[in-house]
C-alpha cells in the first residue's frame, strides 16, 4: 500500500515539476516586447541598403516592381531613392515629405506620387521602430524573439481600417520584410537586402538628413 501511495506521489510531483518548467520557459512569460523591438531597431546610428517592392494589383496579372536604395537615420529621417523603373528621390522627415528635383528639395506632389507618400511615411515608422507612433493607428501583435520576430499591425482607426486589412513586418536586428494587405484586395511586398548599419553616410545623404 505504501508503494502504491509513493508511486502516486511521485507521478504528481513529476507533473508539478513539468508544469513549473513549462511555466518558467513559457513564451508569454519571456515574450519579446514591442518596447524591446523599438530599442533594437533604433540602436544603429543609421541603416542603409537596397529595397525591392512588388505591388500586386487585382487588375493586373503581374506585379509592378520597383527597386532602389534607402538610408534610414532613426528618429531623424528616411531617404528613399527609387532607381527602377525610373529615378525618384524622396526624403521623409518630421517636417514632411520632400522630392529631389535634381537641384533642390521641393514639396512632394501627392497626385503625382499615386498614394506613395502615405506608404513612405508609414515605412519611416516601420523601419525606424517607432512602435509608439504605430500604436496610435494600429493594434500590435508581436511574436518571436529578438533574433527572429514578426509584427502584425491590425488597423484600429477608421482611416487605417478603410485602407488596410493588416500589415506584417518581420526581421531581426533590422526590418527585412514588409507586407501591406489592403482593403480592396491589393497587396504590396517590400524586401530589404544588402543592409549595412553604422556605415558613414555619403555627402548627399548627410545633406538630406
From TrEMBL:
Domain of life: Bacteria
Protein name per Swiss-Prot or TrEMBL: Outer membrane lipoprotein carrier protein LolA
A UniProt-annotated Pfam family: LolA_3
Lineage of producing organism: Bacteria, Pseudomonadati, Pseudomonadota, Betaproteobacteria, Neisseriales
SUPFAM superfamilies: Prokaryotic lipoproteins and lipoprotein localization factors
Annotated keywords: Lipoprotein, Signal
Signal peptide annotation: 1-31
Organism, as annotated: Neisseria wadsworthii 9715
UniProt xrefs under PANTHER family: OUTER-MEMBRANE LIPOPROTEIN CARRIER PROTEIN
